[in-house]
Each structure stands twice: as structure tokens, then as C-alpha cells.
């Protein structure tokens, strides 16, 4: 089974690996240690100390607060909400619901028709990173994309201690 | 005096194991597998554990032989769909129709052919018409569990002495099935009876010989006879090669070992799947949604089918603590009078096609994975119609849209675990389907279904761009095919093939781009054409900040002056329609009729020499925030024409210069521009909770297009859970509701309605 060091996982995160390296990664059995190495690379990069429990998207992490709370936090430091809540409801939103707004992203005939579908862009209120884009009909409830079972993942699947448990 | 049936029916000796009928074997297998949680009740694998090398040798022989049979048999075919694109597949089954090993190719049919064999078992085929050594059966009935009518199955039982030891199935995607319109996935069918020639698990041959009545009837029922005939020979040849292979293995290993092996390999597949789930995923719930547009208003169809509707595909993946995978489509909208309906088997089998490209990318794909999973396909929805009249000829329209978000869901787990190389933002809507038919350039009755669609753009990953013009979700071996081969088959000359800039979704990593072919009518005597694809809706989101791939549109020109322009050596419309905001084709021709619009589904129209039609193959969605894309990569995109220059600035925030067609991105100015974009984002956006109040008011005022309201009304009528979640999310008053009856939609076929029947 292939093993990768922190440097290589860092290069993976940065998108700097060559295709043959990615191909080898994809063709090999998965390295069980990846998660802990990955977490440690990410922890080194964020400007805050809250232990990362789980990365859930570009810039977004579920972190452990000293109080014992688990919250969704952006790498810029902005804290959204409890991880059971939907972070999108605590983000900024911009809805492309006209042809004109659609045309800023696609040529006219290549965009969705706003009578049928809109684009919802969710930004971090702290750093304005575009964190998710939903292509949904008007009225569609905001999707709660992911509800991870963190305890089962750590305790039963990986059998490793939860970081920074209060 | 007539005799009673039981006096004339001869009781045949059962063909199953240990004196059992196939039906008994099927029932016992289902029960013991359910009760024990292990396939065939195997809590251990004695053959594998005692002699693993022998076990693997048997597997390798069978797997290699099945793949070899596919590769050899496909050379029999003349249809480029089969011979060039590889739209065929073979699979080996247990007597009870559980898949053991399968070839490469369109492996969705591991499930659909299994469903056909199960249908025969359930309907006592063992008794009548009988199942005997050297019989040949055929099936393409959508309601038995096929994907769509053009996927034709050949099914052959395998006997060892007097006992059945299994089945082999082969499938090809044929060019035409004699439907209401030509081509294999036609626009025009809105009911089963329009879908074309449907064969319901029929015995078509005995003693390895196809029956004369079958040969006559089937070839008189379809348009492209030579391709139909050679496709059938392909399937029979492959099935017989695999039957010989199995008999050789039995001669070598003994029948008892073979019987034990086929049980253990499926249980091994089940265990392997559970292990993969635990290795790759994170327990929890993943939610996603997609939509497919049905733009049928005003089309040349029965009145009740002439409506604009939306196919709603919400999905929830649950990865249970014990690594069982569950996928539920609760909330899906109704089936309808269009050819885009699906059956539960096509939906679930298709999910395996997707999973075999990501979660279980190995050669141990068999029904073991099926036994480790659970699917929810609500009755009455588009993926489980409660009416045999539903049409299915173009099932892929919504199937692809429904599966792609699942890959996006799984990618959240890969991302969380750090397996970034596995992340995929989704897949292209694999369309347009360019189809038509009539009397071709050779004077024969024929049809076309361009499989250029097998090479759409792939979704972006978390570490690299999606690959452009390269693959389709339903066939991992996708290939656009050679232009020269398509021109041999089709009365259409190529005026160009070109990448469509910006058709892949923008992102830190952009989706693979789609592309366009421009075709000129030439040589047909009587010919019609039409288009079939997604138009007004993007069929997937992007992922983690990336944009969805672009939606579709069509370009067709009839009665052009191209002949005259050729004679005068004037410029012609060539290549792709690379910027539809600034169209070029029209500058180099005139035409009596030009369709340049989002109406991406059309019915047959006459198409003559010098008419033009564009085939636009879609791109894949993007990953991550576009303003985090490396400036150098944007520069490459500009220079290689993967994006349009104005979007390099608007979407990717890159400042650049251009000299003699060569672009250079100014890194410093780009940094500044991107800072500015962040400020603009905060200025133009609002807190989500504030926006929620405004959107709620739209709902209370019922302010949305009719098709959007109807989509929700359909889902509400089928699902109490979806209704409750919707109302709870928006905190709507108790009495707020939208009913289908209030929207003046056709009532035909709307059976299940929990507001009327109390169905929950």
C-alpha cells in the first residue's frame, strides 16, 4: 500500500502534483493514514488554533472549540454556526435570477433560464470566498449538503482519538 | 370435450439444483441472504480461504474470458455505436440471475439483464415456454427493467448435464427500434406504444438457431435492419463464447467447485463493497438535487403531452455506521408523458455504473454490491412509474442528471478524508443526442443516433481540471468516434468539430469543456432530424464554489444558400459556434428558417441537402472559487480557447493583455482585481437569513413560473416527507399548499395523490 508524507499531501492540496502522480494515487489502494496527515497539513496552514475535526469544503472546517462546541469555521477565522446547523444560512448570498446576472457568467444561450432555475452563490461574510453555488429552481429549500457522523467516524471507523476533546 | 389444463400440462423435471425449480432457488436465495446479511448465507468463504490461488485463477479465467468475448464479439457489429463506441456489455449470472462477473462497457446492464432473467423465473418460464440447453431469449421491454427500448438483450441459459448452472447475457445499444421517430432515443414517443418494437423475454431460438419467424418479424419492425441484424449476431456470438468458457472451467474444476465459486465470489463482492465504503467514505447523510427540463409546450405531440415540466431528482445518501450504503430519491416528481421516464432497475443499475468509476473501481463488480446497499425509488415518480403506458426511449435525459449529484455527494466524503484525487464535481448532461432517419445516401431505409455524445466534458476534481470532450457517465470507455466513420453511416458532412469555450463550469479547477460539431445535409433522399438534450436548466451544481456547466441550446438552419456559396467559392459556416452572444454562422449564409434558441428538444422536421444542424455536447461542472484559479492556468485557457476572454475577467478576475492572438495574464493586476471582486461580492450579496424572508414572500404569493409550481405540486402529491420538510424549512402556514389541480395541467396519468387517496 502506498504511503505519502506531509510534503506530498501538501502538494496534493495545492494542486501541484503531476498527472502520473495522481494516477498512481488513484490506482493504488487507499492509504489509511491519509486523514491524519491531511488534517495535520491543514492545521499547520490555518491562522487559528482550534483543532480541526473535519474539512467539509474549500475553506470550511468543523472545528472543536474549548467549550466542547463543534462549529463550522472558515480558514479566514469567520465562525458560521454549530456543525449541526446549515452554514449556508449564516453565509452571504447572491442570487442570479435574471438574464443579465446570468450573462455575467455564461453567454446568453448557455445559461439556465431564470424562469426555470436560478444560481445561488454563497460567500463567506469574512473573506468573501465563494463557498458553494446551488443551481436550483426558485423556492427550493437551501440544501444541507452534509451531516457527518463525526463520532462514529473517529471512534469506530478510524479508531483514533478525537482531537482536542474538551 | 376439451381437457382441463392440468390434464394436458406435462410436469417437467425441474432444471434447478437438487431437484428444485429455478423459482424455488430464487426464493431461497433471497430469503437466506436477507436473514443472514451474507449472500447465500455464507458467513465464511471456504473455497477462497482454503485455496485462494485457485479461487483467483477461476475468477481471472471468467473475468478475462468475459472481457475477451466482448472485445471479439464487437468486431461482428457494423454499427459504430457498438463497434466504435463500445456500447455493449456481457455478464455471467448464477441460475437465480445474480451477477457473477461482468465485462467492461455499459455495465448498467448487469442489473437490467438480471432483471429480465428474474422476470422469466418469476413468470414460470421453466414450465412454459420452457428453458432448455441451447435456447436463446431476447428482451428489451422497458417495464421489465430495461433502461430504454434500444438496449436489446440476448439471454442464453448454461446447462451442465441436465442442470442449469447459470445464464449469460449480452446487450447492445441498437440504432433503431422502430419507434414513433427514428433513432434509438427518439423524441416523439410519449407512451410505451410509441417507444418502438418491444420484446418481452421471448424465446427466439432453440438448438443455437434463431427462429425464422423471429428473424422476419424483428427485421420488419425496425428501420436500420443491417445494423440490427449484425448487433444480434454480436450478442449471440459473445454469449456462446462465454458459455463455452464456463463449460471449460467446469470441465477443469468440477461442477461442485464451480457452484461453490459462484456463491463465494458474490459474497466476496459484497464484503469488498462494504470495505470500500469504510475505506473511502464518512458515515452520515449527504443531500443533493438536480433537475431536468421537459420543454414540450408547442411540440408536435398529443395535447396532453404538450406541457413544460421539470423532472425533480432530490437524493439523500446515508452511509450507515455498519457501512451499508443507502440512496433515497424521496421527493422526486411524477412520471410524465415524455420519453424520459425510468424504472427502478435502470436507476439502481445505473448507479453501479457510476460507483464502478469512483467508489469501487475494480473488476469485482457483481451483485454482491447490490446486497450491501439499499435504494428508495418512490412509486409514481419518474423513476418508478405506476403505469405501464409510460415511455422510456430517452431515459438518460433524467438518469444522468439524477446520478451526477450522487458523485458530488460522495466527493464530500473524499474531500473530508483527504482523498482529493477522487473528488469529482459531477458530470456533463450527456447530450445533445443528434438523431434522425429516412432513406439514406445509399437508398436504404435507415436511422442515425450520433454517439459523439460519448465524449462530453468531465467534472473538475479538487486537484485538477475536468478532462474536456472525453467521457460519458454511462460508458467509462467513451469516445467521440471518427468523423469519417460517422460520415459513412450518416448523410451528414462535417463542417467542423470544435471545443465550446466556457461550456465547462468555471472554478478553481474548471469542468472539462464540451464541444460542437456542425453537420451539413448531403445525399439523403428523404430524411428527418431532431435534437434531444437539456436546455433551459443546468443539470448539476458545481462543487464547493465552482459553477455548474453551461446549459444547452440548438442551432439548425433549413433551406440555406450554401450550395450557391460553394459554387461562388464564398466563405461558409465552419467549426463551432464558439460565442453564441456573437454568432458567426449567420454571417456566412442565409436560410429560410433558423432555430437558434434554448428549445433543445424537438420533434422530426424534414432535413435536406445543404441544411445545417449543430451537435452541442455538454461540459462538466467546476470545483472551487473561480477567483482562486491560478492565473497561469487562466492564461493557458485563453490561449487554447477554453474560455472566452470577457469571462477571464468577469468570472476568474484575471487582468490580461492580448497581442496577435496571444494572451498574457498580469499577475499583479489580477491580485488587485480579485481583491476588488471580493469587495463587490460582499456589497452585492446579503445575509442568507434576510434573503430567506424575501423568498418566503414569493412562496406565500405563489410567485414562480407554472413549471416550477407544478414540480413542487407533483412532489407534494407523492411525498408527505418532502412536503413537511419544505414547509418546515420555509416556516409556512398550516394551510399553505399547491395542488396540481389548481395549475390547469393535464390530468391524464396522475394516479397516486396522497391528498386524495391518503397515500403517505
Task: Report on the architecture of this protein.
Chain B: This is Hydantoinase B/oxoprolinase family protein. Chain B: Pfam families: Hydantoinase_B (PF02538). The complex is a heterodimer of chains A (166) and B (760). With 166 residues, chain A is α+β, with helices and mostly antiparallel strands. Among the domains of chain A are: 1-45, no CATH class; 90-136, no CATH class. Chain A is built from five helices and eight strands; from the N terminus they run H-H-H-E-E-E-E-E-H-E-E-E-H. Chain A has helices spanning 6-13, 19-27, 34-45, 99-102, 150-158; strands spanning 52-57, 60-64, 70-74, 79-82, 92-96, 118-123, 130-136, 146-148. In chain A, the strands form two sheets. Chain A has a four-stranded antiparallel β-sheet, with helices on one face. Chain A has a three-stranded antiparallel β-sheet with strand order 5-6-7. In chain A, helix 1 (6-13) packs across helix 3 (34-45). The longest helix of chain A has 12 residues, at 34-45. Chain A starts with 5 loop residues before the first helix and ends in an 8-residue tail after the last helix. The model of chain A has no long low-confidence stretch (mean pLDDT 96). With 760 residues, chain B is α+β, with helices and mostly antiparallel strands. Chain B has four domains: 5-31 and 58-260, no CATH class; 279-617, no CATH class; 626-684, no CATH class; 688-757, no CATH class. Chain B has 22 helices and 23 strands. In chain B, strands 2-1-5-4-3-6-7 form a seven-stranded antiparallel β-sheet, sandwiched between helices. A five-stranded antiparallel β-sheet of chain B has the order 14-15-20-17-18, covered by helices on one side. In chain B, helix 6 packs antiparallel against helix 11 (344-355). The two termini of chain B are 52 Å apart. Classes of the chains: A alpha+beta (166), B alpha+beta (760).
Amino acid at each position: 500500500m502506498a504511503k505519502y508524507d506531509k510534503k506530498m499531501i501538501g502538494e496534493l492540496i495545492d494542486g501541484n502534483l503531476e498527472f502520473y502522480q495522481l494516477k498512481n494515487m488513484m490506482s493504488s489502494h487507499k492509504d489509511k493514514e491519509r486523514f491524519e496527515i491531511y488534517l495535520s497539513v491543514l492545521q499547520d496552514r490555518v491562522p487559528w488554533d482550534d483543532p480541526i475535526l473535519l474539512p467539509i469544503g474549500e475553506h470550511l472546517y468543523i472545528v472543536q472549540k474549548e467549550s466542547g462546541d463543534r462549529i463550522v469555521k472558515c480558514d479566514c477565522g469567520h465562525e458560521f454556526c454549530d456543525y449541526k446547523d446549515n452554514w449556508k444560512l449564516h453565509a452571504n448570498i447572491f442570487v442570479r435570477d435574471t438574464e443579465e446576472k446570468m450573462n455575467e457568467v455564461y453567454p446568453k444561450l448557455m445559461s439556465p433560464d431564470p424562469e426555470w432555475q436560478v444560481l445561488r452563490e454563497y460567500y463567506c461574510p469574512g473573506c468573501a470566498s465563494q463557498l458553494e453555488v446551488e443551481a436550483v429552481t426558485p423556492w427550493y429549500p437551501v440544501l444541507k449538503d452534509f451531516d457527518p457522523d463525526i463520532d462514529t467516524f473517529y471512534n469506530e471507523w478510524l479508531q483514533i482519538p478525537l482531537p482536542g476533546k474538551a | 370435450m376439451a381437457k382441463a389444463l392440468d390434464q394436458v400440462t406435462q410436469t417437467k423435471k425441474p432444471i434447478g439444483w437438487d431437484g428444485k425449480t429455478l423459482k424455488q432457488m430464487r426464493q431461497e436465495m433471497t430469503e437466506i441472504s436477507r436473514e443472514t446479511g451474507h449472500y447465500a448465507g455464507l458467513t465464511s468463504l471456504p473455497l477462497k480461504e482454503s485455496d485462494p490461488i485457485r479461487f483467483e485463477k477461476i475468477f481471472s479465467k471468467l473475468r478475462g474470458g468475459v472481457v475477451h468475448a466482448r472485445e471479439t464479439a464487437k468486431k461482428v457489429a457494423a454499427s459504430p455505436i457498438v463497434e466504435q463506441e463500445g456500447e455493449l456489455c456481457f455478464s455471467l449470472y448464477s441460475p437465480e440471475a445474480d451477477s457473477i462477473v461482468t465485462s467492461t462497457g455499459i455495465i448498467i446492464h448487469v442489473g437490467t439483464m438480471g432483471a429480465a432473467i428474474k422476470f422469466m423465473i418469476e413468470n414460470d418460464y421453466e414450465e412454459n415456454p420452457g428453458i432448455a440447453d441451447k435456447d436463446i431469449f431476447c428482451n428489451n421491454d422497458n417495464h421489465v427493467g430495461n433502461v430504454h427500448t434500444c438496449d436489446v438483450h440476448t439471454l442464453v441459459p448454461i446447462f451442465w448435464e441436465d442442470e442449469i448452472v447459470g445464464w449469460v447475457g449480452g446487450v447492445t445499444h441498437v440504432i433503431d427500434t422502430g419507434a414513433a421517430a427514428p433513432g434509438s432515443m427518439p423524441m416523439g414517443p410519449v407512451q410505451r406504444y410509441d417507444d418502438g418494437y418491444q420484446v418481452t423475454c421471448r424465446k427466439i431460438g432453440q438448438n443455437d438457431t434463431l427462429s425464422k419467424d423471429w428473424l422476419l418479424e424483428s427485421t420488419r419492425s425496425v428501420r436500420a435492419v443491417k445494423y440490427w441484424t449484425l448487433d444480434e449476431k454480436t450478442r449471440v456470438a459473445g454469449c456462446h463464447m462465454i458459455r463455452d468458457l464456463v463449460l471449460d472451467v467446469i470441465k477443469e474444476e468440477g461442477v461442485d467447485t464451480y457452484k461453490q465459486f459462484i456463491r463465494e465470489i458474490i459474497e466476496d463482492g459484497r464484503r469488498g463493497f462494504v470495505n470500500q465504503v469504510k475505506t473511502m467514505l464518512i458515515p452520515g447523510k449527504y443531500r443533493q438535487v438536480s433537475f431536468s427540463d421537459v420543454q414540450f409546450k408547442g411540440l408536435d405531440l398529443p395535447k396532453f403531452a404538450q406541457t413544460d415540466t421539470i423532472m425533480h431528482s432530490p437524493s439523500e445518501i446515508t452511509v450507515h455506521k455498519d457501512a451499508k450504503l443507502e440512496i433515497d430519491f424521496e421527493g422526486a416528481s411524477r412520471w410524465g408523458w415524455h420519453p424520459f421516464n425510468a424504472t427502478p432497475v435502470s436507476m439502481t443499475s445505473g448507479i453501479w455504473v457510476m460507483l464502478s468509476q469512483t467508489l469501487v473501481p475494480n473488476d469485482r463488480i457483481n451483485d454482491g454490491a447490490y446486497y450491501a446497499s439499499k435504494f428508495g425509488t418512490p412509486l409514481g415518480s419518474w423513476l418508478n412509474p405506476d403505469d405501464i403506458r409510460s415511455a422510456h426511449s430517452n431515459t438518460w435525459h433524467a438518469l444522468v442528471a439524477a446520478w451526477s449529484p450522487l458523485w458530488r455527494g460522495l466527493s464530500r466524503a473524499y474531500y473530508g478524508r483527504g482523498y482529493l484525487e477522487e473528488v469529482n464535481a459531477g458530470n456533463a448532461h450527456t447530450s445533445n443526442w443528434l438523431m434522425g432517419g429516412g432513406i439514406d445516401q445509399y437508398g436504404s431505409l435507415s436511422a442515425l443516433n450520433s454517439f459523439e455524445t460519448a465524449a462530453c466534458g468531465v467534472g473538475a476534481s479538487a486537484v485538477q481540471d475536468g478532462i474536456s470532450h472525453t467521457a460519458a457517465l454511462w460508458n467509462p470507455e467513451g469516445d467521440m468516434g471518427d468523423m469519417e466513420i460517422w460520415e459513412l453511416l450518416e448523410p451528414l458532412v462535417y463542417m467542423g468539430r470544435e471545443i465550446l469555450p466556457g461550456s465547462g463550469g468555471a472554478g478553481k479547477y474548471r469542468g472539462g469543456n464540451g464541444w460542437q460539431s456542425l453537420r451539413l445535409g448531403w445525399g439523403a433522399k428523404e430524411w428527418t432530424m431532431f435534437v434531444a438534450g437539456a436546455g433551459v436548466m443546468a443539470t448539476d451544481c458545481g462543487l464547493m464554489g465552482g459553477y455548474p456547466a453551461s446549459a444547452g441550446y440548438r442551432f439548425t438552419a433549413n433551406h440555406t444558400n450554401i450550395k450557391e456559396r460553394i459554387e461562388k467559392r464564398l466563405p461558409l459556416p465552419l467549426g463551432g459556434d464558439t460565442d453564441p452572444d456573437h454568432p458567426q454562422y449567420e454571417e456566412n449564409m442565409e436560410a429560410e428558417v433558423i432555430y437558434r434558441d434554448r428549445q433543445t428538444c424537438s420533434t422530426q422536421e424534414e432535413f435536406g441537402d445543404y441544411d445545417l444542424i449543430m451537435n452541442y455536447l455538454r461540459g462538466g461542472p467546476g470545483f472551487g472559487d473561480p477567483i482562486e484559479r491560478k492565473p497561469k492556468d487562466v492564461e493557458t485557457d485563453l490561449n487554447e480557447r477554453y474560455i472566452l476572454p470577457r469571462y477571464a475577467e468577469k468570472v476568474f478576475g484575471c487582468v490580461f493583455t492580448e497581442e496577435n492572438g496571444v494572451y498574457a495574464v498580469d499577475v499583479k493586476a489580477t491580485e488587485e482585481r480579485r481583491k476588488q471582486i471580493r469587495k463587490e461580492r460582499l456589497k452585492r450579496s446579503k445575509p442568507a437569513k434576510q434573503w430567506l424572508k424575501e423568498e418566503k414572500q414569493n412562496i406565500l404569493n405563489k410567485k414562480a413560473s407554472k413549471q416550477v409550481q407544478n414540480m413542487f405540486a407533483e412532489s407534494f402529491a407523492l411525498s408527505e416527507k418532502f412536503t413537511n420538510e419544505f414547509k418546515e424549512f420555509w416556516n409556512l402556514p398550516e394551510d399553505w399548499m399547491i395542488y396540481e389541480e389548481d395549475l390547469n395541467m393535464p390530468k391524464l396519468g396522475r394516479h397516486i395523490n396522497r391528498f386524495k387517496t391518503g397515500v403517505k
